[in-house]
Specification:
single chain; mainly alpha; Arc Repressor Mutant, subunit A; 2 strands
Length: 105
Amino acid sequence: MEKKSTIELKELDEETLFMVSQTFKALSDPTRIRILFLLSQKECSVNEIAEDLSLRQSTVSHQLRFLKNLRLVKFRRAGTSIYYSPEDQHVLSLLNQSIDHALHD
């Protein structure tokens, strides 16, 4: 039996449709998936992400800017350092479900 959505399709406005499509766009990039997955494990600075994932700092900064603009990650300042973490659990839930699906036999 199919679970009915609490929101009917006709109720989705253009802005909501755009944000949903952008969220899936964010999750369609392997580098952004790796960054989000790492941030789901621990809060990190740009340098930590670059080191842990063997990426250039400029690549990490670019991807974090993209994720931040979509409100998928947030940051906090601690002295001169900036630390990133997931904005909330919604996108992490999508990410984890997608990973579970990919690993399912």
